[in-house]
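#onboarding

Welcome to the new folks! Below is a worked example of what a typical request in this channel looks like: someone posts a single protein sequence, and someone else replies with the predicted structure as tokens. Don't worry about understanding the tokens yet, we'll cover that in week two.

Example request:
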Amino acid sequence: MDSTRQQKINRLIQKEMSEIFLLQTKQMGGVLISVSSVRVSPDLGYAKIYLSIFPSERGKELLTNIKANIKALRFDLGQRLGKQLRVIPELNFFLDDSLDYLENIDRLLNSDKKEE
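Example response:
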């Protein structure tokens, strides 16, 4: 169970990272990156950021590019949150494929209905 402080920092990092990705994806037409959730460690030194990427076919490619630019993203986050956090947590990005999973379940359920 996360503490109240962790929950506040989770929401704060999610909001700021969403804005950073929004600005970066404006330059790359046809790509949408949203931050689905953030989990900060109890010592606030490490953050797991889960990304939902559309179109999902480019997800692994974009995630690789994002991981290659972690230092620049952490610097941008530090510029935005420097007055609110003493230490900017280390960032680690993961692909959130829950939407693809739900879409697959819907497709399977619909195919069962058609067979009946």
